[in-house]
Write a structure and sequence with these properties.
Elements (H helix, E strand, L loop, with lengths): L16 E5 L4 E4 L14 E5 L8 H17 L9 E2 L3 E5 L6 H4 L12 E5 L6 H11 L7 H6 L7 E5 L23 E5 H7 L3 H18 L8 E5 L11 E2 L13 E5 L11 H13 L12 H21 L5 H4 L1 H11 L12 H8 L4
Parallel strand pairs: 4-11, 7-8
Antiparallel strand pairs: 1-2, 2-3, 3-6, 4-10, 5-6, 9-11
Helix pairs in contact: 6-8, 7-10
């Protein structure tokens, strides 16, 4: 139970705060331990299986282990830009005794269920939240401070959308119809990254390494995984949970890192032509994190080329000892992605999950 002390009554009787909610379930943390400071210790999150019935947190726990296992055996076999995977702490079943110490800190109606406890991805600090609002909020000026100071927005993670530009940017001074926004999973589009001077080519390279690792090393289909920009890990882990040897150029975000999370939709990927079909479909069904091969401008074409070239180069390295037929799969994957341009991305659909995030952007 010592490893779970932070979220149990052994630490505090203060209620845990819900810092996120998705299709797989709700995410809780002891947010009071980590105010806006520049350096934080490691922290925990509790992800409860109280979402849609067709989503499996048990599958997420197993896939998470499958991803971490090869990192432990070869922690430095990728030497590009850092990308992090949260540490997995414990998987809870409804009958796990630890619930007796955790449930008192959850809402009264909560019951023991399957849950995954893992390392918390520490959010970006207050000055970055202020930067996002001052740069991109186009609603009423008198609401800026209330948005920046909203406690719900303290859990600020950035979703780097390298495959999408905002619609209608620069078409006028239209005001947002929303009175507030959420910065919890803030979608930062490629034009916004350019406006901030962020290292988009570095992000593309890191995502290429990450996708090559997920497909060919962990051998999963990367279905609906999420990439976020957040603070880098500030403590040394006993087990390796990071790949790459280079940090991103800090720029206006200061020290930050790319994290990968949400593996509940992932499945094992067959190393075959059918696996390539599956992987390409998953590429297009994910939110637009990856650069778009159907680029409409020179900058986006160049970004796709960076991603593609890095992906193929990294794939060749990690598959150097594979069978000849297997070594051809990365080229086949890229060809399949290009052939299926036009497959509808999940991220292009309006839905309640993202409405709050997109509304103020005048999309």
């Amino acid at each position: 139970m010592d490893s779970l002390k932070e979220i149990s009554i052994a630490q505090s009787d203060a209620p845990l705060e819900r810092i996120g909610y998705g299709s797989c379930g709700s995410v809780w943390a002891d947010a009071s331990r980590f105010p806006d400071i520049d350096r934080c210790e490691s922290a925990l999150v509790l992800k409860r299986a109280d979402g849609l019935p067709d989503r499996s947190i048990e599958n997420e726990a197993q896939i998470h282990k499958d991803i971490l296992a090869p990192i432990a055996s070869k922690p430095e076999f990728l030497t590009g830009f850092h990308f992090y995977i949260p540490r997995q702490i414990q998987f809870l079943q409804p009958g796990t005794p630890s619930w007796n110490e955790i449930l008192p800190r959850l809402p009264p109606e909560s019951v023991a269920c399957q849950a995954l406890i893992s390392e918390r991805i520490l959010p970006l600090p207050r000055d970055i939240r202020r930067l996002m609002v001052e740069k991109f909020w186009n609603g009423r000026d008198d609401l800026r401070d209330s948005i920046i100071n909203d406690k719900r927005n303290e859990h600020c993670l950035i979703r780097p959308y390298l495959g999408r530009r905002r619609v209608g940017v620069g078409t006028g001074e239209r005001r947002s119809m929303f009175k507030s926004i959420s910065l919890r999973n803030y979608p930062l589009h490629i034009d916004q990254m350019e406006a901030l001077g962020l290292p988009t080519h570095e992000y593309a390279s890191a995502m290429a390494d990450a996708l090559a690792f997920l497909l060919w090393v962990a051998k999963i289909d990367a279905c609906d995984v999420e990439f976020v920009l957040a603070r880098p890990r500030t403590v040394v882990c006993a087990e390796p949970c990071r790949l790459g040897t280079c940090a991103f150029t800090p720029g206006v975000l200061g020290p930050h890192a790319l994290w990968i999370l949400d593996f509940d939709c992932c499945k094992k990927l067959p190393m075959s032509v059918n696996g390539i079909r599956i992987a390409a479909e998953r590429f297009w069904r994910n939110d637009p994190f990856y650069p778009n091969p159907d680029a409409k401008c020179e900058k986006d074409t160049a970004l796709w080329e960076v991603f593609k070239d890095r992906f193929l180069d990294t794939s060749r390295k990690v598959m150097a000892e594979a069978e000849p037929a297997t070594r051809q799969l990365p080229e086949q994957f890229i060809a399949r992605v290009v052939e299926t341009i036009g497959f509808i991305r999940k991220g292009f659909h309006w839905n309640l999950k993202y409405l709050n995030n997109f509304g103020f952007l005048n999309l």
